[in-house]
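Example record

The entry below shows one chain as it appears in the dataset: sequence first, then structure tokens.
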Amino acid sequence: MTLDTEHSWSPPVRQPAKPSSGGGGSTPGPVRRNAPGLALAGIGLGLAEGVHALLPAVPMLTAAVVLGVVAAHLPGVRPFVRGRGRAGLSTAGKRLMRAGIVLLGLKLSVGDVLGLGWATVAMVFGVVLVAFFGIWWLGRKLGLPGDQPLLIATGYSICGASAISAVSGALGKEDDDERLAADVATSVALVTLCGTLAIAVLPLLHHPLGLDTVQFGRWVGAGVHDVGQVVATAQTAGPTALGEAVLVKLIRVAMLAPLVAGVAVAYRRRVRGAAGDRRGDRQQAGGRRPAVVPLFLIGFLAMTALRSTGLLSAGVLDAAATAQELLLAAALFGLGTAVHLPTLARSGARTAVLGLASWVVIAAASYGGVLLTT
């Protein structure tokens, strides 16, 4: 998918990274360049909080994406989104998302994983692999453009928006790559929509599928995308199901680290081998290559290790969880502003088919895994 960039913001000519010394015609520094867009992302965050407060069934992250898309198409706001605000919104979509992913590591501890037993860990690992490669293959067969097949597969198989942004950050592309931003926003919107629908649909299947409370919780944890959506879905079956769902979900979150590292390695090899491809030539000639282990992923693992020590109080963890949600919401608003609905509509049928098929793939894989291990 590509953006309509006829009136879009163009990045300034790259200059040595130092602030302006006062010349009126000089290129603005990063703070001045990013401030307008970041301010709009802050407004979007406040509005998303308000929507969630008025309509608790609507997750704040979902509201943030939708509001970003709306802002990108409002006649009075669109020129700002495509112009002065573009740099800051892109920064929000990438850098704030990475900060949120780092804090996501505080939700996981090694003890939580070991407490479920190796059979359950192996089950989750298998579900992630089946879902990731199955959805990626299907997306490519359907002819989805750009990096959408990879990003959608990541979101469904790991942890929704957080995983999508983590993998997009491992591709080593430029921060102002508008095609990637649009692919990320479209993938986030699709995964978020299906995850939100799961809150209503999965509880209706609890008893018809013959699942007891523990099995239902593990099915939800293995098959629903975002942590918040897992909580909302599993709590309908009581505290036991909720506890099982969250633990299984956190094992899926732990899979984020090896998956992102694997994508980064694969992409580096693809770039090195693309001798006849213009993008490969540009990156080999001095452009950025993706790090084998991105810095934000190291931060994620460090936060997991810190949580495992037991040194952090409940208050600190609660504050970190709040900060994580705020960072992700602001980032998703920024990503939402990169969506161009007319372009999205042209690939809408294929995207919808992949979304529904992906939902079936991960629900079926996780259902089978739960039956085999409980």
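Notes for this example: The CA atoms of residues 109 and 308 lie 5 Å apart. The two ends are 42 Å apart (CA to CA).
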